[in-house]
Design goal:
Blueprint (H helix, E strand, L loop, with lengths): L2 H25 L3 H13 L10 H18 L3 H6 L1 H26 L5 H11 L5 H10 L3 H32 L3 H33 L3 H21 L4 H19 L2 H27 L2 H5 L7 H28 L20 H8 L6 H8 L14 H30 L5 H28 L7 H27 L9 H26 L5 H16 L13
Helix pairs in contact: 2-12, 2-17, 3-10, 3-11, 3-12, 3-16, 5-6, 5-8, 5-14, 6-8, 6-16, 6-17, 7-17, 8-9, 8-11, 9-10, 9-11, 10-11, 10-12, 14-15, 14-17, 16-17, 18-19, 20-21
């Protein structure tokens, strides 16, 4: 295609992604499930198509998506639930790959154990994008969101390492369990070390760059690629390096970055996520012609058996594993039980939700597309086209099937976060922060700074005390409420309405000044930014004004 054709193609893709997001926001359907269906529809039409290049996905697409997810994760929450996350992201991935490998070797004509393990490793790691989007929208409990997110951060490294070992065995390099385990541990440890090294370098740069949000943003955008390329150059896990770097940088960002830098970086990464995820899910659907093209050499029975083994293992092993690990006694050191830090076992409803959250995505397709065409002896890689098709079916079944039904299932289970409790915790933290500010001002006053007029201190103290009174009043209302949802205060909602009306009137007046030539555009932008920051402090929900307020 010409350059103009590529530009038109990209613009059309952006239009589709935006349109699907608009539909998803109004229907409640996950965009991650709708976009692959549109991609399939486009792939069936005549015209140019884009084939999935695994090197591009693994080098340019995967690092920023993983890094952004890690930045927004909680390192402390992942530590608290580490046993569960490791159980899902390491042990379950390994069991899934081995089960599919054994099934292929026993029941699929012409398939080898190594080839089966390769496709098993490709389909084993869930891509949590669709499940997290739905879970956040319908208010899943924070712990379930942490488990889904933590699993998605770590399982790719496990799967890609297993895939590398399986491909080496299938192409004639042989297979040794001890050497495979040693390689896995070395790759994982090296990836974690590379990620820590990059995060340390970023933290050193953060303080001198804190005053310039643009430079801090540039460093943030470069970080995932630096971590990935460093790890790959050292022949260790680039995926794990990106995750570790993101977790550490995200944990230290509140201390090392400025407020302006955090606001800008957050906005940039939200845009990157939105566009990359949209393109990725469209790209998944467009791979249909490539994966169907080579199936002519297989009989129908072989295809059906291979697909049944792959899809069946993916759908059944996850709930079985979760139920099994819940049932083990404490003496066997259950992965999903109460550990030394007092983490509770998962409930039956939480197990059901986690079981249905294992949607697969572009990582599975990118991994399986890395399979070589021939083995070391020059013979065709055993069953490569069949492995591609099985992976595509798993991605489609889980992404569309589970993605579209996840929200109704969670609602049926009655799983949702205790918003009242979360609001109460936030107001307690707000009150504590204002009390700390008042104490600091009192200290400042006691030190008798002659260059600070007393009225300045008294004005600031008065504003803080008014804010503290508002937080404590809200806190008292939350403590008295028995509902899971925060109580609605007519007075508070009326105040939100008044503030929005006031900000809107200020904006309109500034625009009138600009249009009349009394205020230059650069001055308008400065004043608009002030109003934007003030509006950003208001809750995202629309104001609900009581007629009696």
């Amino acid at each position: 295609m010409s350059v103009e054709a590529y530009v038109v193609f990209v613009l059309a893709a952006v239009a589709v992604v935006v349109s699907v997001r608009w539909v998803a926001n109004r229907t409640g359907l996950p965009a991650a499930a709708l976009l692959p269906l549109l991609g399939i529809g486009y792939a069936l039409l005549p015209g140019p198509n884009i084939s999935l290049d695994p090197d591009v996905v693994l080098t340019l697409v995967l690092p920023p998506l993983l890094y952004s997810a890690a930045l927004n994760s909680s390192l402390l929450a992942i530590r608290r639930n580490l046993r569960t996350i490791i159980s899902l992201s390491v042990t379950l991935v390994l069991i899934t790959a081995l089960t599919i490998g054994v099934g292929f070797s026993l029941f699929v004509t012409g398939a080898t154990l190594a080839a089966g393990i390769a496709v098993g490793a490709a389909v084993a790691p869930p891509d949590p994008v669709a499940a997290l989007a739905v879970g956040r929208k319908i208010g899943l409990p924070p712990r379930i969101l942490t488990l889904i997110q933590g699993e998605g951060l770590l399982n790719d490294a496990t799967a890609l390492t297993i895939l590398g070992v399986a491909v080496a065995a299938a192409t004639g390099d042989g297979f040794s369990a001890p050497s495979a385990l040693g390689r896995f541990l070395a790759v994982a440890a090296g990836g974690a070390a590379a990620g820590w090294l990059v995060s340390y370098a970023v933290r050193l740069l953060s303080r001198p760059l804190a005053g310039d949000p643009l430079m801090a943003n540039a460093v943030s955008l470069a970080t995932p690629f630096a971590a990935y390329l460093l790890a790959e150059r050292l022949h260790v896990s680039g995926v794990l390096a990106v995750v570790v770097a993101g977790l550490i940088v995200g944990h230290h960002t509140p201390r090392s970055a400025s407020g302006a830098g955090r606001l800008q970086t957050s906005a940039v990464w939200r845009l990157v996520d939105f566009l990359l995820e949209g393109f990725v899910f469209l790209l998944i659907g467009q791979q249909l012609p490539a994966v169907v093209r080579g199936l002519a050499q297989y009989d129908t029975a072989t295809i059906v058996i291979a697909v049944a083994i792959t899809v069946g293992a993916v759908l059944l092993l996850r709930p079985l594993w979760l139920v099994l690990t819940q049932s083990l006694p404490r003496s066997l050191h259950t992965w999903l039980g109460r550990d030394d830090r007092g983490v509770e076992r998962l409930t039956g409803r939480e197990v059901a939700a986690l079981s249905w959250s294992g949607t697969r995505g572009v990582i599975s397709l990118a991994a399986i597309f890395t399979l070589p065409l021939v083995t070391g002896s020059g013979a065709p890689f055993p069953g490569r086209d069949l492995l591609l098709f099985c992976t595509f079916v798993v991605v489609l079944v889980t992404l569309v099937g589970q993605g579209l039904t996840f929200a109704p299932m969670v609602r049926m289970l009655g799983l949702h976060a205790d918003e009242n409790d979360r609001a109460r915790l936030r107001n307690e933290a707000r009150s504590a922060s204002v009390e700390a500010a008042l104490a600091a001002i009192e200290e400042l006053h006691a030190e008798e700074h002659h260059d600070i007029p007393r009225p300045v201190i008294e004005t600031m103290s008065g504003q803080l005390r008014a804010r503290l009174a508002r937080y404590q009043g809200r806190l008292e209302m939350l403590r008295e409420s028995d509902s899971l949802d925060p109580p609605v205060s007519p007075r508070y909602e009326a105040a939100l309405h008044v503030r929005r009306v006031a900000i809107g009137a200020q904006r309109e007046e500034l625009l009138r000044w600009r249009d009349a030539g009394r205020l230059p555009d650069d001055g308008l932008r400065v004043l608009e930014r002030e109003l934007d920051h003030e509006e950003r402090l208001l809750p995202d929900r629309p104001a609900r004004r009581s007629p009696n307020a």
